[in-house]
Amino acid sequence: MRQNIDLKIRSDGTFEAEAILGQCCYALGQGAGNMRIRRAAIAALRARYLDPVRDTVSAWDDLAGNVLPLLAQVGRLAAHLATQAGRTAINEEDFTQARRVVESSAHHSSGLLIAGPVCPPVAGEANELSTRHRSQQTNSVPAASRSQRFPRSESNSGQVSH
After folding, report:
1. Over the stretch 77-112, which tens digit does the pLDDT of each residue have?
2. What is the CATH number of domain 14-116?
């Protein structure tokens, strides 16, 4: 026998915010692929995004197209970090490090807060990541220099020979 579940929205938007966090967890998992995600990492996602999501419930349909792909990127990077460390699951540190990198690069690549109010800068992180981003920009090799140093040859042109 199926129970009738009452999904009424509380005045503070709690149900909607929890449903949105469910979408965020799903996007993170899509990015993580087959990598397991520890509960502490999910708790970190919830701690980071619950209040901003609760504040933007009414605008979620407009924001979701930007936020969810970024969370999938966080999942991919967190899975990569865990794999590099020889772990079979994403832990809280993997999630936090990946989140910081993705948020920073997304915000600084365009100069805009792509995800808007859903991922506002965290006190202390913005300056640290801005400094790191600026140093990466000044240390990066221009594309023209890379192509001069690593010219394409017939053997590495990406063409498959049979």
Report:
1. 999 999 999 999 999 999 999 999 998 877 655 555
2. 1.10.20
